[in-house]
Amino acid sequence: MDLSRFSLEGKVALVTGASRGIGKATALGFANAGANVVVTSRKLPDLELVAEEIRGLGVKSLPVACHVGRMDQIQELVKTVVGEFGTIDILVNNAGTSPVLASSLDLEERAWDVVMNLNLKGLFFLSQAASRVMKEHGGGKIINVASIDAYKPEYHVGAYSISKAAVVMVTKVMAVELAQYNIRVNCIAPGAVETRIYDSHWFDVSEEQMKKEKAEVAKRIPVGHIGQPDEVAGAMIYLASDASSYLTGETILIDGGSFLV
Q1: 158 assigned to some structural domain
Q2: 261 belongs to a structural domain
Q3: 235 near 197, Cβ under 8 Å?
Q4: Residue tagged active-site, from 151, 160, 181, 198
Q5: Annotated catalytic residue 160
Q6: Does 223 fall in a domain?
Q7: In what order do the strands lie in the sheet with 61-65?
Q8: CA angle 81, 97, 37 (to 5 degrees)
Q9: Looking at the 3D structure of the chain, how many domains does it have?
Q10: Which pLDDT score is estimated for 81?
């Protein structure tokens, strides 16, 4: 096989939620593969640090502050990227939130709206805006980030689990509808990965207690450890590259085998 098909040389990638965790690891992975990368999240100072690191790899990077749960900011984001780079070849919908732990009996409407606006509505309409650009320029790749919770609901994280299950379906819907324009739409579903959202499960305990409980979680994962963001980036590069040209509408579980047990 021609390994150059994994190259992202000269591509323009937009990664949301890119200031830390999976988003940052993905942005750096894309840069290492040759892409110019636009990084976005709500806080510009954090993004500027990531962009500087990306530029150190010999490619271009633009940090853009944006709340992708807000429709006006989504449109402005896409205009900014196209104005700077001329196109969007790759979109990674990584931004997400899970602000509360609450049962379905206690979940408040405001919390539901916060989760759905960012995890689902923003993801859909940013994908729509980016895919219109991709259509004009001959195609592209959209990669959504769901969660293992899309398949196995997590206790007291109902709104998040529902939103991520919907992300899997958005992936399938857009994959079918956009294939004719050479746009591939796929998804990853991480399991336990060291991110801020994952750590929020232990918001009410000490750091020492959190470490103990994480160690217990790791014992139950077949590969024996909680994932690191870098362990997700490889799949992202594959899905963003020409190597995955015959794959669309699929969701890849990256969970260390935990869904199997």
Answers
A1: yes
A2: no
A3: no
A4: 160
A5: yes
A6: no
A7: 61-65, 36-41, 12-16, 90-93, 140-145, 183-190, 251-254
A8: 25
A9: 1
A10: 98
